[in-house]
Amino acid sequence: MACCALLVGCAQGTLPRIDPSGERIFARDAHSDRPPAGYRYEPGGRLPWDDVAVTLSPQVSMAPVGKEVVLVAGVVGPEGYFMTNRRLEWSLAQGSVGQFVDVGGAGFGDMLLGDFNFPRKINSSRAVGSTSRRYIYMNRGTPDPSDDVVVKAGQGWATITSPVEGASYVTVFAPDVYPWDARTQSAVIYWVDAQWRFPPPAIAVMGTRHTLCTTVVRQSDQSPCPGWQVRYTVMDGPAAGFAPDGAASIDVVTDAAGQARAEIFQKQPASGINRICVQVIKSVGATTGDGRQLVIGSGMTTVTWTSAATVQPPTTTPTAPAMPTTPSAPGTPAIPGAAWLDVKTTGPSQVNLGAKVTFRITVTNRGTATARNLVIRDRFDPGLEHEQATGIIERSLGDLPAGQARIIEIAFRAVKPGKLCHIVEVTGDGGLRATDQACVTAVTAAIPGTTYPPTMPQPPSKTEPKTPAVPEPAKPVLQVTVSVRKIAPHGQAGARQERPDGLDRRRDAFSVGDWAAFYIEVTNTGTQTLSNVTVVAEHDSPLSPEMATEGNKRIGNSLTWLIASMPPGRTHVYESHCECKSVSARACLRVRAKATSGAQAEAEACVQIGPAAGPTIGPKLPGDVTAAAPLDLVISDLFDPITVKQTQTYVITVTNLGQLSDRNVTLAVTLPQQMILEKLGTTGPTPVQTVVGQTVRFAPAVELRPGKENRLEYRVRARATQPGKAIARAEVTSLNNPQPKSDEAETTILMSP
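The chain above was modelled as a monomer; its predicted structure follows.
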């Protein structure tokens, strides 16, 4: 009877319903907050000491293959603070590339506090660690502090690497967190094997068309990367667009050679400068359903439209040039990118066998960010002998700020006759790479001290007269004129680029950092058509040609144009825009034009370059006897791109470049409208003084001594709220520098996945 009653009771009972929302297995009774009969909650109800959340950063990142990415996770307690000695379990999703390299966690002393979570890798895709009791500063061993990682007490870390392209989907699990939906966080790392070369600045005739070409290759083997997307956008300047419809922005897919070409043209002929933003875009996550397009590199180039109507474009333009083995265009950064390296090697073309030959190597950063950890390597032929090295010469160059150059001289001895070459390669962080080659011909006979070999054989004896050249009937005549004027640096507002009338040859006064525009006119004043006229413009070393009329071939510090045919009375005009690099009493541009018929002409224009003009100097400190040098201000973002709701950290450094101490150094950082300040993580050598709107102002630093080792470092943390281009601006003032010095950092904010 009891069994029957039990069966009857069971028959009258109701089984628990499945929860259709998916939040739990069984639906709760609408009339009770207790679990169904015979069940208990797992996990149980919230306890006062339960942790409430786990954090993970960065949640979306991108890195070159072979590098090591640091992920930082934290466990948040009920009071909103990070909690120490909490277990963290790391895992890579199936199908991800990469593997765990290292994991942080408790030490031997933590066992006394009951933390037995010794950091360990279970396998390549699983690791266990715990949050630290200490503050850890993870130094990557580079001079750049922006790549260092700060791990606070209550946070743990793990590092991941991948030798191949793809995505790593990482999950961190904190078992001490309640509820279930708050105890895991995920991150994705996109690995990229690529580097790119943006189109160099160019000068074109207004009303014509100019082709821009970006090359994308694999960093590992320099093979082309087809199928990548390159976006060209006209930022400002005269009305211009891209073929075929004149759109201000165009997306081009790289071809089999890894090249993306876009043709820009003017809608109405006008002189001026178009700034063009170039972005390299990679489609990632398509195979996993997480398809998105990420901007992995961006740069800026310019096209200067001139009013020289007689300038003729090159007769032929290769449609798909192969990747050069020694590119004349500079290498470009990987992720993220704004540094731009250029290497030029100059030296004599001939040398006596057994004599010493010296080459000058100029490494220039033509980008907008500091090139970090540069290393120069020189590979030379066996016919060149170095005093110390017998193989590859390698030397560290350190960091190279934007817009600056470094000159290295290397001497060899020619021990074998013939053509002897050496290849110079400069590499840096982020995939930076640039190469150049220089050759010299070693001969057994003494060669006169000239850069160009004699065109006629030497006479057999001093008494025998030279054979005069046979004059041609009605020999045509060439005329060359060169003029120069000062212009504003390219890309600056108010830069005057039109050529004025009535310019004369003259010596003009310039300062280091100024720009000089040289105007070259080559005219056929004869009565016959000239063919194959070669125009060579040789720049003295203090003048660095940055932009020139298109169609030129650059070798060292010289530019060469070729005029296929030149009728009588025809004038060709060329321009060379140079930056004044060093002090010189007389720095010249020498132009030589020569036709195959023998007609030739030469001309030159010279400038005097003085020291760089200093900024406005404020009050001196007591006892100062010289003016203080300006402060160097750099702001950089640690992550780019980021997604909405993700945090960004801006690192700001202030360095005293002079020899005297400065005082009352005050920093203000204005965040973009797409971000809000996170006070936790905003630090500096002085505390935050005020926050007004989007501007964070730090209390003044009492003293800033000269030298890089004494620089001030600030960190401002912000959370992204809206997608778009976000620009953070930093300004610094001081007692000796009352005029604000500013710098900006741009971050791309994407929609959350």
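Helices lie at 2-12.
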